[in-house]
Amino acid sequence: MIAMLRGVLAEKQPDHLVLDVGGVGYRLFVSLTTYEKLPGVGATVQLFTVTHVREDALHLYGFVSQEERSLFVLLNNISGIGTRMAISVLSTLSAPALVAAIAAEDLPTLCLVPGVGRKTAQRLVIELKDRLPAGMMMPLSSAETLDGDKPGSVAESAAGSLPSRTVLRGELTSALLNLGYKRPEVERVLGTLLAGASIHTVSDGLRAALKALARPVAE
User: What does pTM read for this prediction?
Assistant: First the structure.
C-alpha cells in the first residue's frame, strides 16, 4: 500500500494530477480542496495517498493533509458512498466544514454535495459523528467559510497566473462531468456563469457551478 508520495508536479487538473516520482508518473485523483492548495506545475509536492483496488483497476487518491485523507477513508467505508461520492463530498466541503456539519447534524449543508439528499445526509451523520477523531472536532476558523474558501488560497493565485476563458471552460467542464453531471446541464450552467465577469479561476468557477447545480435529491 502506498501511503505517501513526494515528487514533481507534472500535470494538474481539478480532479486529478500526475506526480513525477523518480521518473515514474503517478496519476492521483484529488478533491477540489487539495487541487486549490497545489503549487504550480514543476514544483515539488508531498501528498498523503490512499490506494483503492478494484477488480478492473487500481486507483490512487492524493490529499494535502492527513485529515482530509482520514475523512476520505471514513466516507469510503460507508456502504453506498464509494470513492466517487467521497471525493465529491470533499470537493464541495473542506475537511473542517464537513466535520462541523457532521458535529452539528447540519443536514442542509451536507445536502449541498451533488447527489446527497436528506437520507444520505442523515446516514453520514449517523455513521461518522461518533467515529471522527477528537482532534477534528473543532469549530471552523474565522478565515474559512463553509465551502472551504480561504482568502488568497486559490491555486491559480499561487501559480501567479489566471487561465484563459477557453482553458477555464474546458477544465470546469471536465471536472463537472467527472463529478457525474450531464453535459447539457454543465454547458447550460457554465454558459451563464462564464458570461459574467466574476469568474476568473477554476476553483471559483467550480464552486459557483456546484452551487448552481445543487438541487434537492429525492430519496
Answer: 0.72
Residue numbers of the domain that contains 202? 161-213
What CATH number does residue 166 fall under? 1.10.8
Same structural domain, 34 and 72: no
CA–CA distance from 159 to each of 12, 41, 42, 121, 182 (Å)?
12, 8, 10, 35, 30
Residue 46's contacts (CB-CB under 8 Å, 6 or more residues apart) are: 4, 5, 6
- Taking alpha carbons only, the member of 128, 137, 123, 145 closest to residue 219 is 123
Of 13, 44, 63, which residue is a domain's last? 63
Identify the CA nearest to 96 among candidates 133, 123, 61, 44: 133
- What pairs with residue 29 in β-bridges? 16, 61
- 114 in any annotated domain: yes
Q: What CATH number did the domain enclosing 30 receive?
A: 2.40.50.140
pLDDT band at 218 (very low <50, low <70, confident <90, very high): very low
Give dist(CA 58, CA 52) in Å, integer.
6
Q: How far apart, in whole angstroms, are the C-alpha atoms of residue 32 and residue 169?
A: 16
pLDDT of residue 147: 46
Distance CA 122, CA 114 (A): 15
